[in-house]
Amino acid sequence: MKSLPKVELHTHLEGAAPPAFIRGLAQEKGMDISGVFAPDGGYAFKDFWHFLKVYEAATSTLTTPEDYHRLTLAVLEESAAHGVIYTESFMSPDFCGGRDLSAWREYLHAIQEAAAQAEAQMGIILRAVVTCVRHFGPEKARETALCAAETAGDFITGFGMGGDEQSGKQGDFAWAFDCAREAGLRLTTHAGEWGGPQSIRDALDDLRVERIGHGVRAIEDDALVDHLAEREIVLEVCPGSNIALGLYPDWQDHPIERLRERGVKVTISTDDPPFFHTTMTREYDRLADAFGWNEDSFRDFNIVAAHAAFCDTETRARVLKKLEQTDD
Ligand code: ADE
Ligand code: ZN
C-alpha cells in the first residue's frame, strides 16, 4: 500500500513533527521538554487532554519561521515517502507569531517556500487550513480568523478549528467562521470526536462547515448519518488517531465502514501521525485487514478526498490525473 497514491485532508503541521526533530530543536535552544517524551523516544501522553498539553509543549520549541521551514520539509518528506500526493495541513497563527499578522506572514512565507521546494523535488502538493484552537477561546479565534482572512489565497484555502471539543460550543466561534467564509475560505471543524452527535449538528448549523474533522460519533445517531449522506458532508476520518486515543478499542470496532455503507462520504487521514504511531501506509494496511478493503476501495476514497479538497480546480485536476494514472 505504501506506493499507492494518496490524498490526505486532515493533519496538523506541528502534530506531524517527528519526535527526533523536536528533541533536536529543544537541544539547540537549551529548552527542557523531557516530560514530552517516552523512554522509547516517542511522544508520551495518557489521554486526549494530556495529548493537547504535550502537543503544545512540543510546539513551544518551534519559535522562528526557519524552524517552520525545516518542519514543513521534514513532514512533507515523510508524507511523500508514504505515497501522499496531496495533503492539507492545519496551521495556527496561535503558534506562528502569536496571532500577530506581520509575524504570521513571515512564518507563512517560510512554510510556503518549503512547500514549493518539496513539490519541485517530490511532487507532493501542500495546502493550508488555518485553525483556531478551541480551548484558547472565541476572542483569540477572531484574531486567528483575521490572520486567515488577510492571507487567504492559493495556498491558504481553508479555515477550521481544533483543540478541546469539550470547551465551549461550536456556535461561540461563529464570528470567526463567518469572517473566514467572507474571505472566500472553505470551512471545516473538529466535531464528533470527543463531542457527541450534537456537536456535529452544531458544526453544520452554527458554523456552516462543509467538512467535519473526525465526525465518527455521528454513528450514534441514525438520523444524523442519513443527513450527512444526503448533504454529502465529507468526514475527515482518522481511525488510527481514534484508536490510539481510546475512542474505539480496535480497528474492527471503528465506525468508518458502517458510515461508508450508509452512504456517508468518508476519507482517511493520520491527524498527528508520530503521536499516534501511525502513517498513511499503516492506516491503509490496518483498514485492509479489518474490512477487506483493497486498492480499488482505497482509490475510491482518494477520489472522494480529491473532490473534497479545498484547492482550486486546476490543482484538483492535477491530483485526479495522478490518481487515474495508476489505472491500466
Ligand atoms: N489538535 C491536534 N490534534 C488534534 C485532534 N486530534 N483533535 C483536536 N485537536 C487537535
Ligand atoms: Zn485533528
Automatic annotation (TrEMBL):
Molecular function GO labels: deaminase activity; hydrolase activity, acting on carbon-nitrogen (but not peptide) bonds, in cyclic amidines; metal ion binding
Superkingdom to which the source organism belongs: Bacteria
Hydrolase is among the record's keywords: yes
Domain Adenosine deaminase: 5-324
Coiled coil residues, start to end: none
Record key words, sorted: Hydrolase, Metal-binding, Zinc
UniProt cofactor(s): Zn(2+)
A Pfam family matched in the record: A_deaminase
EC number(s) stated in the UniProt entry for this protein: 3.5.4.4
Record-stated family: Belongs to the metallo-dependent hydrolases superfamily. Adenosine and AMP deaminases family.
NCBIfam families (alphabetical): aden_deam, PRK09358.1-3
Database matches in PANTHER family: ADENINE DEAMINASE
Protein name (Swiss-Prot/TrEMBL): Adenosine deaminase
Protein species of origin: Actibacterium atlanticum
